[in-house]
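Self-study notes.
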Amino acid sequence: MLRKVILSVLGVALIIGAFFFANYLIDNKNKPKPVVPKVVKTVLVDTVQNSLIPIVISANGNLTAKQRVELYSEVQGVFKTGSKLFKPGQKFNKGETLIRLDASEYYASVQSAKSNLYNSIAAIMPDLRLDFPNVYPKWQNYLNGFDLNKSTPQLPELSDEKENYFITGRGIVSTYYNVKNLEQRLSKYRISAPFTGILTEALVTEGTLVRSGQKLGEFINPSVYEMEVAVSKSFADVLKEGEKVSLTNLEKTKTYNGTVSRVNGSIDATTQTITVYVEVKHPDLKEGMYLEANLNAEKVENAIEIDRNLLLDSEEIYVVRDSLLDVISVKPAHFSDEKVVLKDVPNGTIILRKPVPGAYAGMQVKAAEINSSTVDSIQ
């Protein structure tokens, strides 16, 4: 009997509990859902004021010396020690000897040829005195001024046909030009600096046997550099020689002033670009430095400049009308790395100053006040 009483009590308790739980669920179902407040984003805007926008072309490149000489040997000989070491970084003034090769053997052959020329002229002097007394004095003066230790002087001018036949027939003229040819080759045993500069490469050292045609090194003028940049062909008609160019280093910490020195007359068929050469001078510059050049190409009238990330792929931009976002079509005139120049944007149009995440046409926004109303303040 006790067991039946316990089971009856538990059954009644469960029925009462179920009744109260059902009422609780019914009461909660009828409660109103909480209203989520609508968030209105605050956006930075600007008012369009069209103006004259200069187009600046950015291009990168490496500096190369405007004056550069690759040194080659035209003769063979042993590299002799000079007053300065032939090492990279060594400075030489204009006219100083860069390289001197041992030419003692060849010098002896040149002196022998000069002596033969002197003897040939001396041998005809008696005949000149008898047959050509009027030209004898000039040839005598030539012999008197002949110095084996100096460059061979030019032969006296032949005054008439008979003198020409006589001198040529004795082989004087051919001997003279043979001597001059040997002297010219002798001068190639010494290479002098064509301008004041510095060695950037040295491939031989003192005591090395240098062979004909061997490259010896490179010599540059470190005071003037050029940078070669490729520019779109659309600017070929506006880029002119003498245009001022601003150049900056990679760190954007230094600025240099350059000038367009040359513009290539042909367009690269592969890249459809034109090559422009910018000349720049500064003591801090070194060959091989990487710089960025900003070239003033042209100016666009009635245009504005905004960040590229504000331009949609459909060539549209967002505008604010009655606290709602809308889009308008625009006409891009020029693209740079970070900016875009636009035309056909009416004055007074309120545009976004910064991109809005998740923006769409019809989105409700709140325009933030800014101090400047000109497009030049867009950042």
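Second protein, same conventions, sequence then structure:
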Amino acid sequence: MKSDADIIVVGGGPAGSAAAIHARQSGLTVIVIEADGQPRRRPGETLHSGAASILEQLGVREAFEHAIGGRYGSIQVEWSTARSSDRGSIPLAAASGFHIFRDKLDAVLIERAETLSADVRRPCRALRPIVRDQEVVGVETDSGPLEAPFVIDASGNGNWFRKSYPSRVDVLSPRLLARYGYCRVDDLRDFGSPSIKGDQSGWQWIARVSDDTLAWVSLALPGASARPVKPTALAALADVSPTRGADVTWKRADAYSGPGFFLVGDAAFQLDPAAGHGILRAMMSGIMATYQAAAAIKGRVGPDEAAQLYRGWMAEWWRRDTSALTEMYLRLDATWDRSSSTREHHQSEAGA
């Protein structure tokens, strides 16, 4: 059967849009399947200055500059234990970082993909991967089947692909719950830089995402007596929206890629927000997956080698981030232990 595109991307967030943009920049045809008609409001994001080069590569730097809510040049840190306390400011190595609402970031990226003639289909739901002879060859959608040499799952932690394809999820931390919200503020002088404050009960993050709005995230460590709550420093400020929660337990797919597929962003693995660069990882993994898919399509490498190279790249990112997070949490709680992993199995008839 004739393919509908070179690549099908499921999900129009930062990972999926970056994959679609890079596919078009590489001369490939791409279909993006996005369930939401318009970008949804998600937690505000603070991007490190290192994201600037990726935004430049994707061709969205100018549009992004018009959408940001502010800039910052350092991060205020207070990381305390029973024995010691690290206090101070961490300056950025290069240019200042960015504050932006996620719906604005998503809009900038997906509009860039459309400008490059990516076929963005929204609202459209991906139902299940199409598997033939143990190889993923397309996606069954609520509008009918679509086929392509490669499918990229950028659906986030909804686990769209893993729920329908024989796979396993490794859970590699205690259960972690984050809560987040937004506050209105008139005087931003006390909130010029993002701040993170950690102690034996957990940590809290505060960052400005617009001229009059602060975003906060709070996470309680396992065994803490109190669940994560709105930071005390913001108690007197009016909430813009209800407090929400998210399960941010560390999870990873047993295979980041395989015959005909790549998993990118949180679809590949999920860490809690203290890792500090979830959006950067999402965009870079989308680009890397498309780079390997393009190399296979154009005959520069075989499909198996392309999948193997991507798996190794993602495995190294996981190793670096989890090592850094473990070191951070051990400084707050000497009993922190992620050594006893569990596994969630998602079996299906996809290959039948």
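Instructor comment on the second fold: The first helix runs from residue 14 to 25.
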